[in-house]
């Protein structure tokens, strides 16, 4: 796996978290991928379980910005900001996600580092 | 593990990477901790093997700055910058480290996300 291929996959991931659709996000994941979001929660295995996460996001207005991306071999860590707006509230969250890739460039594992203290909610 | 206890351990870690000594850094690690720095390299298990990493740093002038810290349960992810100076060269590296802690607040695992492209070297 070339670093450039992983870089493009992560950039596309952060972009798709903003725009959707869920199906295109899931296409970045291997079929048996495992996601822990946030880290420490029950792992979600496979596209159906993982898709629930992104379907929930699809209900709200959202915007993402990629900050820092680090890559080595089949591993990546990325910090980005997600801002969602719904029902008169703005939620801002800047997680650090770590991802592992298979040799086809698909995500086999993702763990999102953020805690309840990291979620900022404002009235708009 | 309270988030505050992990926060203080990570802040102390980043500070000690600047100041040393190695012994105090190792005191933050459980005896059988495993470190992968950078991620994908051979894991170092135990204080003796881990200490080699920080002993190498002890030979050079260094400065650290913590940027972002995310915590959930026994897990933390931190982005920080390390600047070292030695032999007329300045090396700047901003890794993203992920850490897992035991119930005593000691680091049981650390994986450092950075690649060769992320190390900037300048003449000084």
From TrEMBL, chains A, B:
Keyword Isomerase (UniProt): yes
Record GO terms (molecular function): isomerase activity
Keywords on record: Isomerase
Cleaved signal peptide residues: none
Residue span, SnoaL-like domain: 10-109
Superkingdom to which the source organism belongs: Bacteria
Pfam families cross-referenced by the UniProt entry: SnoaL_2
Keyword Protein biosynthesis set for record: no
Protein known as: Steroid delta-isomerase
Gene source species: Nocardia mexicana
